[in-house]
Each structure stands twice: as structure tokens, then as C-alpha cells.
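Hi there,

I know you've been waiting on this one. I reran it after we fixed the sequence typo, so this is the corrected version. Both the input and the resulting structure follow.
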Amino acid sequence: MKKLYTYIVSMMLGLTLLSSCDNYLEQVSPDQPTTDQTWVSYEAAEKYLASAYSYMQANGWRYHEYFYLPQNFRADDIQPENGTTAWNYLARIVGFNNTASDGVPAVMWDYWYKGLKLTNDVIANAPSMEMISQEERDELVAEAKFLRAWYHFNLLKNFHNVILVTNVAETPEELQLPAVSRAEVYQQIEEDLMFAAANLPLKWEQEYWGRATANAANAYLGKVLLYQGKWQASLDALNKVEGHDLVSASAFRGMFDGTSEVNEEVIFSRGYTSEQLDALSLYHQLGVAMAPGELNGGWYMASISEYFMGALEAGDIRTAATVLQNGETFDGEVINFNNPDFKMMIKYVESLDAITTNRSTVDLIFMRYADVMLMQAEAMYELGNDTEALAKVNSIRERANLAALTGVTGTALQDEIRKQRMIELVGEGQRYYDLVRWGIVKDQLNAAGQKYADNFEDKHEYFPIPLEEVQRNPNINPTPGF
């Protein structure tokens, strides 16, 4: 049924991964196009564009170590456990002892700049494809610009300084660009997303689930503007997202266990299927990573914090859909942890078999409508529209089976918006970046009793430019403090 397009993405990822094996020189790299192979038809260009999606994150264990861990294990809602801290290269990240030579952020940097290279290939070549229509050319460029914005935004969220890459390098010197101001990168991201929003469909046919849409472009544009404190512009962009809504309370868990991945709430996601697993060994391992050792050999990498649990209200349907507690039933079995206080994150964990086999194929959600609504609420609050902001928050609460709030304004409303963002989006790579943009990371780490809170300094809000980039690029200076 789903994801012909993500199947193409997966094939391209498989080829890319092959190029790193011992027989690298014998492989035809999918990111080295030639005119006679790629820019000859819409279908050929579309397949090349599909490869640009493949660098959003790594496959297998590399995903949870190099992408999921730094995006989720450094805040107040999820805390690292022995499966993380026992490895020095991971412990340095979650313990705020990292340096410019650490490999985890270097992998993020490397992947996302490879993705940028592919998007720029499409943007540079698609406009000259005279054999296809102007609409098709614009659509290819728009999708590539969405991805270019996505990669640049993720780099901005994670690194002190970044290199803005908007052209295809034709000489070695053109690969050695200097870092630019964050404002300049944000401006390019906004321009790319506005072009994408104007030239992509609101939705694709279901067989192309996973492709960027105008709705995804407007949702990300709203988020990018929100990060900069441009409240009205953010709200204007978010209000353009249409045709999406919250799924019902009974369907909430289905977004994270593989039973209801294609739905009206998900706006942009990274797809996996059982067919991809069998044919191409494409999967992630969040199930086994989140489980403790006594649960089918889990790796005990993280747990839900007591701070998060303390924020939950009685009757919240998100509790059982998000957290597995001692003595509860999961996948038809009663689960007993050696530590009865352990709380296991079960978003993106579909079954006990996924833990046993170290293979999960649940889609990873990058943007959903609940996030859009909470961003709207935040922008409305900052603009002084407390009544409208509370209405958005109450929509989230009511879906969670919680009573609507009345008369909540001012700081109490801001606190509720921030609390709902934590509870609703836990484990979806949002909380740490929210704390950074609100300027309250250390306060929240201390409030949660996070064991590494004392190590946190302002410089740890972002990673330094990787040492490898400094060494190979004479126009890049080391990040101060690292």
C-alpha cells in the first residue's frame, strides 16, 4: 500500500552504504551524476532526488547513536542510562564533556552536508531539462529546496557555526567555504521553504507518502521563524497548513507502533517497511536501544525521567502510549523490570520481537500536526492572544483525554504550552532544542535532577564545528571553548 517513493529512497541509501565498503572503487556512486544518466527524464531526475532524502539519518544502530541520542538524551525528559554512559564517545555527548574531535556530531555534520550536495545538484540541473514541463522542473527544484532547508536547519540547531552551501562545487577550492552568520543561513532557509510551499502539492497520492509537501514546507517555515522569535510571520506560515488534523485518542499509539503510520496528523516522516527490511536490511533499532537487558536483551540506553512522569496528569492517554512501566502489559505480555522504577520509552517500538531481533520498522516522525498546533499556541501567546493560544492547548489536552483549562493566562499559560510540548513530543527530537531556544537548558536539567547538569555550560547548547572540517578547510576556525 504505502511508500513506493520511500522504497526508491531506500534503494539509493543501500547503494550509498555500499560505496563505503572495501570495494568502494568498484562501485558507481549515486551522488556523482552525469548528464547522460540523470538529467534526461523526469523519472531519472526524480530517482536522483530520492537519494537526497537518504542522508537525513543513518541506518541500523548508527541512527540511535549518531542521531537519536544527541537529539533526545540531553534534556530533562529522557535520561541516559548505562548502555549509553558505558561508552566514552557517547558519555561525552550526554555528559557535556564533548570536544571538537568527537565522532557523534561529526557524523551528523558529514551526513547532512552530503545531503546538501545532492539537493544542490537537482537545483542546478533540473531547470535546464527541456524535455519536461516547467511545472515538473519547478516541482523538482521545490522538493530539493525543501530538503536543502531541512538540512541547513538541522545543522543550525546542532552546531555553533555552519557553512551555507547553495551551489555545486566545480573546483576543490569551492569546497572550502567559510562559515557564515546564523542570520544568513536562516534567510536562505526561509527563501527555500517559501519556494517549496509555492510549488509543491499540499499532499501527494498515498503511494508517494513520505515526500515533502507544501504543508511540510509551511510547517517548517513556521518553526524556523518561531526559532527566531518572528512570532507573527511564524503564525502566518503555520496557519497555511491545511488538510491535517489530530488523530483520535484511540489512534494516538498507532502513530508510533506501526499500525497507523499513514494518517491525517503526520506531515513529514521517514518511512520504513517490512519489505525494505527483508530486501535491503533497512531498519532502526530504537526498540532494543530503549529496553533494559532483562527485556529480550535490550541495551539499556535511556529511560523516561521522573521529572517527565511528574508532569503527567491522571487519565492522560499519552502515558500508556509513550511509557512502559513495571507490571504493565506490552505486546500481550506482562513486563517486569529488575528495577521497578524504570520507565521505558516505547515510541517507535512496535513489539517484543523488534527488541529480540534488533530490528524496528516504525516510521520516524519529523513533523506532525500536534507540533504545528503547539507552535501556533506559542506564537499566539507571544503576540498577546492568550485566548486563542489556550484554545490550541486545550485541543491537545482534550485529545489526550484531559479536561480543558479555563482562565489560564500569562506565565501560567506559557508554562502549560511548554509542558504540553514536552509531554506530547517526548522522544521526537524536540525538547532539547526547545530548551535551547528558550534559554533554560541548565535550569531544567537542574530541576530534573539530571546527573550531568553541573557540567553544562552555555557553549554546550551547540556542538563545535568538527575537527575534521577545521583540518581540511583552511577557511574554518576552531570553535572557541572546545
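Quick highlight: Residues 280-362 form one domain.

Best,
R. S.
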